[in-house]
Amino acid sequence: MDGSPLTPTEFASAVTAITGAFGDPTRRDIYLLARQSDQGVTASTAAQEFGLHPNVARHHLDKLAAGGYLEVAVERPAGASAGRPSKHYRVTDPNTPLELPIRQDSVLVSLLGRALALLPNDQAEKMAEEVGREVGQAMAESISPDEVQHSFQSSMQMVADALTAHGFAARAEHSNTSSGLRIVAEHCPFGGAAIEHPVICAVDRGLVKGMLIALYGETSPDQSSSLPMGDAVCVTDITA
Prior knowledge:
There is one protein chain. This protein has a 4-stranded antiparallel sheet. It is an alpha+beta fold. The protein contains 9 helices and 6 strands, in the order ααααββαααββααββ.
């Protein structure tokens, strides 16, 4: 670099690249795991190490690879002459100094929660869900701009993928309590702010509802578990 100041566009691109790679605490941990291993890691080993679904672990590894932090090699297990090869992710340059930025958006989320707390609870929750719904619809339109209506199951999978891309580490699966499906989010990008201000969870519900309106149609999302409720994951049950 020549040392000249970054333009606003260059600055925004740099921030997006950095937070996209390391903004998620789980992704940081997976990177550190790969950095400590000479052989690299697979999605299966990362999933087992951190208690993740293999698809979620693979998503984090692919994000790190796309950012140039990891390189990918397709290999069979050592000593095996047959069997399905797997992707091994290794640190691109182990000698590069490790500088992981600290997220600052948690401060903004906390301020959002405190601002919503000044409103009556019903009004605050309605406002948070409405904001989430509008953002969710915009996200869905960018995913599927052709305005084609998708099946309920494929729409749910698209919603889970979109949420995962935004730090929720989400997956779609059959609901245990109804004939519908549910979204299970193993990570909350809002962090401790959601526990301190549970109304923020209405944003999650709105995101799911907004995306499904655009991709499938009207549904009835209902959060059956969340971090503020004392659960380890956030679950949103959906009935079509």
